[in-house]
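Feature request, filed as a ticket because there's no other form

It would be nice if the structure record came with a short human-readable summary line next to the tokens. Right now we just get the raw output. Example of a typical job, pasted below so the devs can see what we mean:
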Amino acid sequence: MIMNAPPNTAALIQRGLKLVHLRLLSALAETEHISMAAAQIGIAQPAASRLLAEIERIVGQPVHLRTGRGMVLTPVGHAFARRAQRIQLELQDAARDMAEAASGGTGNVRIGSVTGPAMDRVLPVLRNARLTAPQITFEVIVAPSDILCDHLLSGRIDFAIGRVPAGPEAQLFAVSEIATEPVALVVRRGHPLANHPAPSAADLLRYDWVMPPADSLLTRTVLDRLHAHGLQTPPQRLSTASFLLTFALLLQSNAIAPLAQAVARSFSRLPDGPYAILAVDLGIEVEPFGLVTRAGAVLPPAAAAIAREIRLLTQNYSD
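Raw output as currently delivered:
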């Protein structure tokens, strides 16, 4: 069995490490099957098996173990695969840098954001960018932070506005903190409490509440704050992470929904709009979100410019 000491970078190159080796390791980490990994990078399975043997010779350590259902990477293999994936992402970003430079500033920026900041941080910057940089196109994914972090690691997005989930993978990200996320209580315009000047705790608990699943950050934050006020857990007959379903239910019932204040304001600001914010402040704030990138990553020029604008907007909010 190969059990030599891991070589340094120069030794890896001297022993013949090539980009195709890195591509194969990256594919193996995703598929955990040699034939699927081979197909993903466009080579035959025998060629992939030879490349895998070359990788173990170059590294001097076993990088995979065969199982009845395919194969798994060893700890050494996983460590190498993570770096291989990162190198591929950096090369992709380098290609984008050159393409943007050659085309005179055009580019495509891929942003991920949790819902509240998408409304009051990302949207205003993109609205301005449409006028100041019309040659740049944008893609925005709105999702929970854990999904956004997965997209970051896979190269699906350039940066995220959200939070880094706790755990060992937190070290794979760099975070620039922006702000906490205030929460408002939203109802339909004709709700019995919609025009109440100061609803009481008893008033609030008289109605059904609509919140995401119990393990979500928003629900945990809301319940912790209610309990800190000495309030009971509100009745909740529907749990959903869907904003579409939440807003639809609000229109058709007397339910109350705790939502990010930026979202609540966007849907309640029109005088004749269908939604209203209750005139009660329970001091509910979700923990700070920030601008999240892969640790050590250099953003392509267009993405870096938009990230700077989001930071500047944040500074303006705090001034």
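Something like this underneath would help us a lot:
The CA atoms of residues 110 and 157 lie 5 Å apart.
The chain has a mean pLDDT of 87.
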